[in-house]
Write a structure and sequence with these properties.
- This protein is about 40% helix and about 20% strand.
- The chain is an alpha+beta fold.
- The strands form two sheets. Strands 3-5-2-6-4-7-8 form a seven-stranded mixed beta sheet.
């Protein structure tokens, strides 16, 4: 049977997220802002928050050298071609920035359920303390995957001990929407990174670099097209 390429636009795909929103940033804050946080939270809470670094580097593509346990068999080119239409690595600006950039780079719309985005309670507590949004917190180590069957992909990732959740779907329009109960929130073009903000770093410059890097990844991972059998 002949194989042909189709644009992602107009094709409904599941969006699967690996890892936990904002975990990278909250682990850093648990260490760097320990003194401030100690005034509200017990030592055991902060120690557990800092130890969660082990949950960050689950995806070899998203991990620095030596940080990932590896899952090469699952992320071979054959696996990508058959199961994954696209991959986007999260970083500065968190999940919200990543979803916007993914949609823009691939030329697609999306609908995501806020309640399905995986996030640790420790991350929520730390973000609440500093009055920042956990979904705008640096989420290095996480990635967004586009696939025709989110449940099946989640099962395969679980076989490799990679945490993931199906959080939404792509749509045929250009709307990028996060749904929370009855509320529909349209994603914005730019999100300041919560970690950089708390560190007093240049959020605009970091976000710019991330978008450029991830656009590169999109091209290499064939995010602008899907191969399917006729």
């Amino acid at each position: 049977m002949q194989r042909r390429e189709k644009s992602l636009k107009g094709k409904e795909l599941d969006i699967v997220m690996t890892g936990f929103a904002g975990l990278y940033g909250s682990v850093i804050l648990a260490r760097e802002k320990y003194g401030e946080l100690r005034g509200r939270y017990p030592v055991s809470f902060l120690e557990e928050a800092a130890k969660q670094e082990r949950l960050i580097w689950q995806i070899p593509e998203a991990a620095p050298a030596g940080k990932s346990d590896g899952c090469g068999a699952y992320f071979s080119s054959d696996f990508f071609e058959k199961s994954i239409a696209g991959m986007y690595l999260l970083s500065e600006g968190g999940v919200f920035a990543g979803l916007w950039n993914m949609g823009k780079s691939a030329g697609i719309g999306l609908e995501v359920s806020l309640k399905k985005i995986p996030v640790k309670q420790e991350t929520i507590e730390i973000c609440n303390f500093f009055d920042v949004n956990p979904y705008q917190m640096n989420s290095r180590g996480c990635c967004l995957l586009l696939t025709e069957n989110g449940g099946r992909l989640k099962d395969r990732l679980a076989e490799c001990e990679i945490s993931s959740e199906a959080i939404g779907v792509t749509t045929g329009n250009n709307d990028r929407v996060v749904i929370n109960g009855e509320e529909r929130r349209f994603l914005e073009k730019h999100y300041e990174d919560a970690l950089a903000l708390l560190r007093g770093e240049d959020c605009d410059k970091k976000n710019e670099n991330t978008v450029s890097y991830c656009n590169d990844r999109f091209r290499r991972m064939h995010l602008v097209s899907v191969r399917q059998r006729d």
